[in-house]
Amino acid sequence: xxxxxxxxxxxxxxxxxxxxxxxxxxxxxxxxxxxxxxxxxxxxxxxxxxxxxxxxxxxxxxxxxxxxxxxxxxxxxxxxxxxxxxxxxxxxxxxxxxxxxxxxxxxxxxxxxxxxxxxxxxxxxxxxxxxxxxxxxxxxxxxxxxxxxxxxxxxxxxxxxxxxxxxxxxxxxxxxxxxxxxxxxxxxxxxxxxxxxxxxxxxxxxxxxxxxxxxxxxxxxxxxxxxxxxxxxxxxxxxxxxxxxxxxxxxxxxxxxxxxxxxxxxxxxxxxxxxxxxxxxxxxxxxxxxxxxxxxxxxxxxxxxxxxxxxxxxxxxxxxxxxxxxxxxxxxxxxxxxxxxxxxxxxxxxxxxxxxxxxxxxxxxxxxxxxxxxxxxxxxxxxxxxxxxxxxxxxxxxxxxxxxxxxxxxxxxxxxxxxxxxxxxxxxxxxxxxxxxxxxxxx
Length: 443
Fold this sequence. Notes:
GI Alpha 1, domain 2-like, 443 residues, six-stranded mixed beta sheet, Rossmann fold, G-protein beta/gamma-subunit complex binding, globular, magnesium, two-stranded antiparallel ribbon, 8 strands, 45% helix, metal-binding, metal ion binding, alpha/beta
């Protein structure tokens, strides 16, 4: 009866690191003591292995102009990793170019919208200077051109054109209201970009950028890959060993066409692309997080731009809840996997973006293959909701109880059995992701 009870307890235990746990429980006391030390070393090695390989690989994907790079910058700032002076100098030039090309589009749009100004000589001269500079190959703007920005923007005819920008042939980046409001500061002689200025910059990602963030226990490597069609073939080379995919889709783009062909609806392209990613066999074990981004623009757009004009299947009321639900369902229906994490986001809102990676804290992502093999005899229900340290403590307790039962009457039995040092093995979620709050709502 005694041995039968033991047999019931140990038959499902798997071999760990070359040491069969079943043999340990029915072996002699002397051998058990010796092998007990081996178990301790194996589990210590497991902890060290986790520490050495504790790198989270995050891949940020999505169509062009969806807000991927802005998300990465926000994530970096949420870890209080400031931009270097060299980076700020680089972004300063990008900010000036963003404003420059937006003013170009507005000047060209005056004729398109039949806004025929009765220009002053100053406005005429300034406009001519800007237009002539468009034809140059310079990548850094001279100061005399930068000084013209506030002058041109203050013309009422330009502001009227900007208010009707949806009618123009060329897109104006969605963060320009912010930059136009800040022109006086930005065009000052001693201007240094603020974090929010950097967040609002727009620049096409034409290659792959890697950002590395460090926490107490983890290194997070974030790969931002260009979303233009010509760059998508390179995505698959980054799929190996990915912990999570963050797919960013601009929910506000439902009325826009792809820049590459001026024929394909951007939202349709984004939904199709998401389906390919979510159903890819190489990503079957990776967490996928969907951001329906640019909600601030979306909320304003649905007031004047009817969705059914571009998506006839939409038959609901043109209110925020119905519109959000319609586009969310398009993405959900494009994949066979269960989508647990869908967030409505505004990339330029730093308070929102500090919280969005809660879903990476998936308990299965924190267990390596050996841990899972070691714990196979527990039911899923028993493990549900437990952190890695709690699961290992459960495992320790099970082994120690069985060993004590076998050797209860032997004098040479030692109470110091298999234990994992809490300080070494505590991979708590809060330590790993200590910058993210728990109060985020997932759709």
